[in-house]
From TrEMBL:
Mg(2+) 1 binds at residues 69, 87, 89, 209. InterPro entries: Inositol_monophosphatase-like. It holds the Pfam family Inositol_P. Its cofactor is Mg(2+). The keyword Metal-binding applies. One of its GO terms (biological process) is signal transduction. SUPFAM superfamilies: Carbohydrate phosphatase. This is Putative inositol-phosphate phosphatase. Signal peptide: none annotated. Keywords: Magnesium, Metal-binding. Mg(2+) 2 binds at residue 90.
Length: 256
């Protein structure tokens, strides 16, 4: 077994373990705090998951750097070397309000190259994992590239903020599609794309929201493109279009 496959197996096990910890924590009362506003919340489980994951990563890969949402990672200024990117609960609002449709996410970038990605849909027990060298998998099943349909034959996924405020003419793209979906979790949105349920996703993502899904999407031939004039920067916030190539072309013609 290659070094990468062995690492992948270890990380898959870590993901399932954190999923089980998360489900166990849901039997207790959540401690909920506001971050920047009542629309932006964090729980004790976000924080304890991140501490748990980061501690494991430091044991496994002591020289790597860690970028993570809740403050237990490193100050990382560039993607040189090995960089792990951690979202301990993606879709915290769904975690609190729906108690489903949230994910645990992890990615490994090596010298800036997307290498491994993991999205665990906790309540459905589905782990999406892999990368360019290993292929992309849903649990034990290897995924094939989704059908390359144009926007008129696709569902479009738009983040609520972008849709409501019509950022980058997202409503124009939405009107052209068969219908719209809003999931409230970037990770769940990425799983809908890689399984061919949606054809495009327009959103604004932080590093931990984008990095894992980007690895898996690109490995399946989807395109991940900035919508504004900035080049994609995994360490900052990006307005992005993630889509099958045909839908991406259609949307670019509609919104530019
Ligand atoms: P989070 O739950 O890990 O914060 C929908 O809100 C999606 O956008 C989620 O994936 C959420 O990730 C992400 N997101 C990014 N920035 C956000 C913010 N400031 N407030 C709420 N959600 C945010
Ligand atoms: Ca958050
Ligand atoms: Ca997130
Ligand atoms: Ca999060």
């Amino acid at each position: 077994m290659s070094e990468l496959s062995a690492l992948d197996e270890t990380i898959q096990n870590l993901m399932y373990e954190v999923g089980e910890r998360t489900k166990a924590a849901m039997t207790k009362k959540l401690q909920i705090d506001e971050k920047t506003s009542p629309h932006d919340l964090v729980t004790d489980v976000d924080k304890s998951n991140e501490q748990f994951i980061n501690q494991r990563l430091r044991q496994l890969d002591p020289t790597a750097k860690i970028v993570s949402e809740e403050g237990f990672g490193d100050q990382v200024h560039d993607l040189a070397g090995r960089v792990w990117i951690v979202d301990p609960i993606d879709g915290t609002m769904n975690f609190i309000m729906e108690r489903e449709n949230f994910a645990i996410m992890l990615a490994l970038y090596v010298d800036g190259q997307p290498t491994l990605g993991y999205i665990l849909d906790v309540m459905k027990n589905r782990l999406y994992h892999g990368g360019p060298a290993l292929g992309v998998w849903e649990n034990e099943t290897r995924l094939t590239p989704p059908l390359n349909r144009g926007i008129r034959d696709s569902l479009i996924d738009v983040s609520s903020y972008i849709l409501m405020n019509d950022i980058h003419h997202a409503q124009t793209a939405a009107r052209a599609a068969r219908s719209i979906r809003v999931f409230g979790s970037a990770g769940i949105s990425m799983t809908q794309l890689i399984t061919g349920r949606t054809g495009a996703y327009i959103t604004n993502l932080k590093p931990w929201d984008l990095a894992p899904g980007r690895v898996l999407c690109e490995a399946l031939g989807l395109v991940v493109k900035p919508i504004d004039d900035h080049p994609l920067d995994v360490l900052s916030s990006n307005f992005v279009l993630v889509a099958v190539p045909a839908a991406a072309n259609d949307i670019e013609q509609l919104i530019n």
